[in-house]
Design a protein that fits this description.
- By secondary structure, the chain is an alpha+beta fold.
- It has four helices and 14 strands.
- The protein has two domains: 64 residues, LysM domain (Membrane-bound Lytic Murein Transglycosylase D, Chain A), CATH 3.10.350.10; 125 residues, Glucose Permease (Domain IIA), CATH 2.70.70.10.
- The strands form three sheets. Strands 5, 6, 7, 8, 9, 10, 11, 12, 13 and 14 form a ten-stranded antiparallel sheet that branches. A two-stranded antiparallel sheet has the order 1-2.
Length: 251
């Protein structure tokens, strides 16, 4: 087989063919670099009920279904702290005539993580009850924009062992690897409207229920769905994914 290749290369025409194949191959790889990928398995509008699986929380189910935890709590007559049972059936739609509203209460007595807080440039957003200050979760260039990720957050380049920090004050409502496509995921609740999500981490440093301060280290960078070192980051407003560029400070 090797001798046949050598004989082919001796022929100029054969050499041109071989070189052409290599060039075309290289172009093909470049065009297919960093393809658009979907994150996780979303529960579409056609899904009316969901059966609770091990590790699920009301926030993680809402994260997948695109609903706020308020909506799910109201539709299923759940009250704080929103404990779910494996096998429990959750309704993912509003019943006709349902008007009961349930609001989460601030957890008192939660042990606050005392790890180092990283102060970075932040942006204050108003328009809701109170004020929110946002900062970037990772120092790095943008790999994928909101549009490129399929309107599910952004991808930020990182380095091995680089720290991921909380973009604003809040409480951890999910910390684990139970959502397919998101790897080691952290979800932080900031107020009654906003959640932030940090996906595909190599290590997690916070647990569910912890109170978090803006700039506090919560994880370390892992590899995203394109096998590149970086963070997939999302902001959810009332359960819906919104463009983080509208909230994070300009670099």
């Amino acid at each position: 087989m090797i001798m046949n290749i050598i004989e082919t290369l001796k022929n100029k025409k054969g050499l041109c063919i071989v070189l052409t194949v290599f060039v075309l191959s290289g172009c093909s790889q470049k065009d297919n670099f960093a393809p658009v990928r979907s994150y996780g398995i979303s529960l579409g509008e056609q899904v009316r009920f969901y059966r609770v699986q091990p590790g699920d929380t009301l926030f993680s189910v809402g994260f997948r279904s695109g609903h706020s935890f308020h909506q799910l709590a109201r539709w299923n007559n759940l009250s704080p702290p929103y404990k779910l049972l494996v096998g429990q059936r959750l309704k993912l739609f509003k019943s006709v005539g349902s008007t009961k509203k349930l609001f989460s209460k601030k957890n008192k007595g939660r042990k606050e993580n005392k790890s180092r807080v990283v102060q970075r440039k932040s942006k204050v957003v108003t328009g809701f009850k109170g004020r929110m200050s946002w900062q970037w979760p990772l120092e790095g260039r943008l790999l994928q924009s909101f549009k490129k990720t399929g309107l599910k957050g952004i991808d930020i380049a990182g380095k091995s062992g680089q720290e991921v920090v909380a973009v604003s004050d809040g409480r951890v409502v999910y910390s684990g690897d139970g959502l397919k496509g998101y790897g080691n995921l952290i979800i932080i609740k900031h107020n009654e409207h906003f959640l932030s999500a940090y996906a595909n981490n190599s290590r997690l440093f916070v647990q569910e229920g912890q109170t978090i301060r803006q700039g506090q280290k919560i994880a370390e960078v892992g590899r995203n769905n394109d096998n590149r070192l970086g963070l997939h980051f999302e902001i959810r407003k009332d359960g819906k994914s919104v463009n983080p560029a509208h909230y994070l400070p300009k670099k």
